[in-house]
Amino acid sequence: MCSLSAQLRLFSFHGSSCEDGRLTCEEDQCLVDEELIRRMHQHPLRHGWIAANHSIFWGRKLKEGLALRTGTFLPEEKASIITPLKLI
After folding, report:
1. Parallel, antiparallel, or unpaired: how do β-strands 22-25 and 16-19 relate?
2. Which among 2, 23, 26, 31 is positioned nearest to 15, based on CA atoms?
3. Which residues, in sequence order, are bridge partners of residue 16?
4. Of 6, 15, 17, 64, whose CA is between 20 and 30 Å from 57?
């Protein structure tokens, strides 16, 4: 696990590594990249959700996050016009 402790901890998961408490990816951008999360916070209302560093996404790359349906894309038109049911 990645931590901010003084000890150096290394792990390898899908080409990612952790050194000095920072998670880095070799080629693709990490889903929990601090810079990516910061950029997402610049326009929080645009997305309808808030980015955060969740441990379930550690070691995942941005492409995997999009494929795992993290809510990054807008829903299809049919899904966006659904209204809640009202009890009568």
Report:
1. antiparallel
2. 26
3. 13, 25
4. 6
Task: With respect to residue 8, please indicate whether it lies within any of the assigned structural domains.
Answer: no
Residue 59's domain comprises 16-72
Q: Kindly report, residue by residue over 1-32, the tens digit of the pLDDT.
A: 344 344 444 444 555 566 666 666 566 777 78
Looking at residue 26, its pLDDT comes to 61
* Domain-located, residue 53: yes
- 7 belongs to a structural domain: no
Structure tokens at 76: 């299809």
Structure tokens at 38: 């910061």
Token couple for 71 = 């809510």
Question: Is 55 part of any domain?
Answer: yes
CB-based contact 43:69 (threshold 8 Å):
no
Neighbours of 61 (CB within 10 A): 21
- What stretch of H or E contains 10? none
